């Protein structure tokens, strides 16, 4: 997991990827995962906001030089496992530029109204993500089934 010390570097990475970051706080970092190089440079992150058994997946970002090597997929899968293990059953997200990426990972487009009130009242839903952003969701129960299958 990320630590409070990661906040500045996470915000810088998100700014560089043109993703919203102004609403993040030190407290947000307890539900962020990060990836660093051997020299300590932050090159990837992903965050989660919780609302009961639903979650808002946000801020998935990989620095341009580190892309296309599986890091984005790895961060996404790690966050899905973390979310499921801590009580989240369905993930929602908003994206303006990566809907094809998320579709290839099992997410399907849905109406914003499908998200529970706790997700719809998040800063991403109410303000910082444009209305034109695509809302997508994934039921994490499928991960549980595949985990127990022989
Ligand atoms: C989306 C992102 C996290 C992917 O990271 P990554 O480390 O390059 O991803 P991976 O290496 O695991 O996967 C690469 C695959 O995803 C596809 N992909 C990457 N970005 C994509 C995008 N924006 N739209 C569609 N497909 C995309 C690649 O074509 C590649 O496909 P392939 O496996 O069929 O060749 C990265 O491009 C990024 O940070 N983008 C800017 C921020 C963003 O849009 N985040 C999502 C909104 S929350």
UniProtKB/TrEMBL annotation:
Lineage top rank: taxon: Bacteria
Domain N-acetyltransferase: 1-141
Keyword Transmembrane helix in annotation: no
Record's keyword annotation contains Transferase: yes
Coiled-coil region list: none
InterPro entries according to UniProt: Acyl_CoA_acyltransferase, Bact_Acetyltransf, GNAT_dom
PROSITE patterns named among the record's database cross-references: GNAT (PS51186)
Keyword terms of this UniProt record: Acyltransferase, Transferase
Protein name: Arsenic resistance N-acetyltransferase ArsN2
Origin species: Variovorax rhizosphaerae
Gene: arsN2
């Amino acid at each position: 997991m990320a630590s409070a010390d990661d906040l500045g570097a996470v915000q810088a990475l998100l700014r560089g990827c043109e993703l919203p970051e102004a609403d993040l706080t030190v407290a947000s970092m307890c539900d962020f995962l990060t990836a660093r190089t051997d020299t300590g440079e932050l090159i990837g992150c992903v965050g989660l906001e919780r609302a009961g058994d639903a979650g808002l997946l946000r801020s998935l970002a990989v620095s341009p030089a580190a892309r296309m090597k599986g890091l984005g997929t790895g961060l996404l899968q790690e966050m899905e496992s973390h979310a499921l293990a801590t009580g989240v059953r369905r993930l929602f997200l908003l994206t303006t530029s990566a809907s094809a990426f998320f579709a290839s990972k099992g997410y399907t487009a849905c109406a914003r109204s499908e998200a529970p009130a706790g997700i719809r009242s998040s800063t991403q839903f109410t303000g910082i993500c444009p209305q034109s952003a695509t809302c997508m969701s994934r039921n994490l129960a499928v991960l549980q089934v595949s985990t127990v299958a022989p």
